[in-house]
Fold DEN2D protein.
Amino acid sequence: ATEGKEEERKKENNPSRVPQGKPGERSSVLYSAGQFFFEYLVVVSLKKTSDGRYEPKITYQFPKRENLLKGQKEEEERLLKAIPLFCFPDGNNWAPVTEFTSETFSFVLTNVDGSRKIGYCRRLLPAGRDVRLPEVFCIISCLGCFGLFSKILDEVEKRRQISMAVIYPFMQGLRESPFPAPGKTVTIKSFIPESGTELIALTRPVDAHLEHVEFQALLQRLSPHHILLIFASAVLERRLIFLADELSVLSQCIHAVAALLYPFTWAHTYIPVVPECLIDTVCCPTPFMVGIQMRHLDRVLEQPMEEALIVDLCEGKIIREVGDEEDILPIKLQNEMLTSLNRHNNNNNIHTSEQVNALVSEAFVHFFVRMVGHYSSHIKWSKNGSGTFQERAFCKAIASKTNRKFVKKFVKTNMFSLFIEEAEKSRIPQEGKW
């Protein structure tokens, strides 16, 4: 029965025409040390079509895969077909330029088997004097570590300004290095003509669940009050649309919102930057968290969508809301979190990015501990070692009426169900999560 329910849930949340993504904070595959850093490096360039427009195409792929089995080949074809769309999600309205500011963003794709791949992108203008078109270097990896890959893309960009030929040995060296454990460093040797051999140190942050996130990006664009309204919508798995001009802003802010849910995981449609041709995703009746470029605002508002929270990251305001967002979270805890966020906001210049991440995360984890931290004492264990969650007793054990009212809604979410399913399999409480 559980398997059937799981299959149904997957079908409901993943319309096959849209490459879907889910942030993988709790997926162990994202954090296992020693695997390959990446699966592919691809270059996506804009090629002129017969009608004079530009279409993104993969012009370079490393490594080239040979002797793939039929299923692997089909999966690779699907992946390589989706990548150009996500590297140039802003359509084909391009013209050659002499200046262009590099931008970094990412996307998430889900395979048929539910495993996830992350595309780390750097859009840049190759070296030259004449007018030319930007291109995207995209690293495909199943490892969630945004800071680390941003540093790798810095190295790729530096080499691109010399020659494409200098990128290959660097990426080969990276591919042969094992992904470091949290807090550890891996050193890559790299030769650059006229500069000699360089040693590039790549250090992985100590706290695995925060290594893919930048809460400062969110605090710089939204008030603590707005962040709490967004969190309240996300925690009840509603529809959230974020708008910004820059792909990097959309990407950073959406990853940060998803990370506020830790130790729970957003289990629905998740597209940090929606390609122009997929904007009708916002008509989807199931929950989603998506980012759309600001120039499509009118088109978004025209869509026949169900209730959604629409956030303008340029102006730092909420354009459309359901109306009850202020009442979702218990007021006492809401005020505590507000105080905590205001404190971090006022000290933004003092704290490092890692400190802000830790402080913000702590405030939200504390909220979940207060609300549902007693879950493990309401799992009844049978002799054969399988557990059954006692939902009624769990809710009844909450003394505060306002807290109980919230928890009764929260236990119905997919993210809570998945968390409990995992807990029922193991007699060891998920202590590492809290």
User: Anything to note?
Assistant: The CA atoms of residues 48 and 54 lie 4 Å apart. The two ends are 30 Å apart (CA to CA). Residues 208-433 form a domain with the Rossmann fold fold (CATH 3.40.50.11500).
